[in-house]
Amino acid sequence: PSRLQWGGRFAAGPASVMQAINASIGFDQRLWREDIEGSLAHAGMLAAMGIISAEDEAAIRAGLAEIAEAIAEGSFTFDPALEDIHTNIEAWLVARIGEAGRRLHTARSRNDQVATDFRLWVRNAIDSLDGQVRELMRALADRAAEHAATIMPGFTHLQTAQPVTLGHHLLAYVEMLSRDRGRLADARRRLNECPLGAAALAGTTFPIDRSMTAAALGFDRPTANSLDSVSDRDFALEFLSALSILAMHLSRFAEEIIIWTSAPYRFIRLSDAYTTGSSIMPQKRNPDAAELARAKAGRIFGALTGLLAVMKGLPLAYAKDMQEDKEPVFDAADAAELCLAAMTGMVRDMMPDVLRMRSVAGADFSTATDLADYLVRDLGLPFRTAHHVTGRIVSEAESRGLELVALPLSVMQEVEPRITEAVYDVLTIEASVAARRTLGGTAPDNVARAAARWQETLA
Ligand code: ARG
């Protein structure tokens, strides 16, 4: 059967290692649905153009339907001697329906066939991952609405900076994920052209209708250049690029979850469902799911750089190197799917420790900027001067072991005599977040509105 396609030219079969290095059926069997879908569209077009008979088309349809059933129920045996999914399916078809099956490959090559199947697969993967990103955004928006006014420390350099709200922090990820969806949608738009009909590389001598197959497979149009059609893997690379940026975002959030659950922070607690224990230390609650989400980003970046390296030296048009395009894409898509599901679960279940976050948010002179702003607003100091004066007050507070809110007015007045009792109104963390009402700022009202807007958009 391995001579099915090119036996005419060959006297001997392949070395066993040739088959081992050459066969892709071990992984490209995942393309079976797309391969059958593509063959159905191709056969329909061949018949419509009078290139094969209506009887042959009907036999092909029936045969492919049987094959789909056999694969779905697990009774189809994939044969490595038949190299890949395309040849496996075609060989079965010929074994089942004979002569008609031998006509299916008219005006087609595995080069345009695999390019078509793979685009269809990536398109489906984009649609399904997009739905998952949206679910994660909804989970984040829901929790953000709930915690629009929950105050936590905001960090720069991982040092206490200014108070923010937990809702605001969560919505930052919603913004990132929304751009990730945009990138996936963009990749989808560009990939949605149909390579079928490019044949091996130069087009075909048969009077095919490429627009017909493109439409039947849900593509916007056929690809414009036959050489490009069979050698382009931009669509896979763009998919992996978008997934890499998405994975980077998920990894940053996973890292924060890991930090937040650690004992010195204790900002959140994960549910039992998303925590593991230790085989030796009975007290442990480890954030393994977050750690794995962080690690899988590395795997996804590896898929992108791996495929870029495979593609970068290939002369036009098809080369067998391109068979190595599928595993990284499948692996990255699987990893992204798992990460998204796990992150969504963690977000829905996580239990913020509101009191703990509050108390940490008020520590480390987190409202020093508010004091400087007060000196500018109420006393008319230039900001640079106010910054300097505040620095001196902070250092007085530090040497006394007091937070700014607890520092006596007399101490502040020694540094700047015009400071009045009114200063205490700006030094609480509530006043600090409430005062940041600028567009995109952390004021609880802003955050509640932004969360509600996202909930509505994502409903
Ligand atoms: N299994 C091959 C792949 O995944 C299909 C295309 C083979 N084409 C060829 N000319 N050998 O790339």
UniProtKB/TrEMBL annotation:
It comes from Acidiphilium multivorum (strain DSM 11245 / JCM 8867 / NBRC 100883 / AIU 301). Pathway: Amino-acid biosynthesis; L-arginine biosynthesis; L-arginine from L-ornithine and carbamoyl phosphate: step 3/3. Keywords: Amino-acid biosynthesis, Arginine biosynthesis, Cytoplasm, Lyase. The keyword Secreted does not apply. Belongs to the lyase 1 family. Argininosuccinate lyase subfamily. Its EC number is 4.3.2.1. It is an enzyme of class 4 (lyase). This is Argininosuccinate lyase. Residues 15-302 form the Fumarate lyase N-terminal domain. The lineage of its organism: Bacteria, Pseudomonadati, Pseudomonadota, Alphaproteobacteria, Acetobacterales.
